[in-house]
Amino acid sequence: MLNTFECQQCGQRLYPKRRVCPSCHAQKLVPVPDPQGIILSTVTDPNAQPTNHVNLVRTQRGVLLLTRSATALKEGQTVSITDNNNKLISTTTDGDI
Prior knowledge:
There is one protein chain. The protein is built from no helices and 8 strands. Helices cover 0% and strands 48% of the residues. The protein has one domain: CATH 2.40.50.840. The chain has strands at 3-7, 13-14, 29-33, 36-44, 53-59, 64-69, 78-84, 87-92. The chain starts with a strand and ends in a 5-residue tail after the last strand. It has a 5-stranded antiparallel β-sheet, with no helix packed on it. The protein has a 3-stranded antiparallel β-sheet with strand order 2-1-3, with no helix packed on it. The chain is mainly β.
């Protein structure tokens, strides 16, 4: 499951975690579960194997992320997002990769 981070002072949400909030410079960033999102755009990268589809995803909390997927996903599709050794992976919510 993916955690994004929220500033406890101003509410800014971000990923990955930083030392200070880019909006208010506070140092109180806490992890917040943010496991799903919506595909906004997708492209195929024929040079990156095996996960050769790159997706722009907006999480439920509004954070924009670039993820990869093994199969082509569609704009508007709901996906689960996982962090696999600092590589963000999108999978369909029905279990397909």
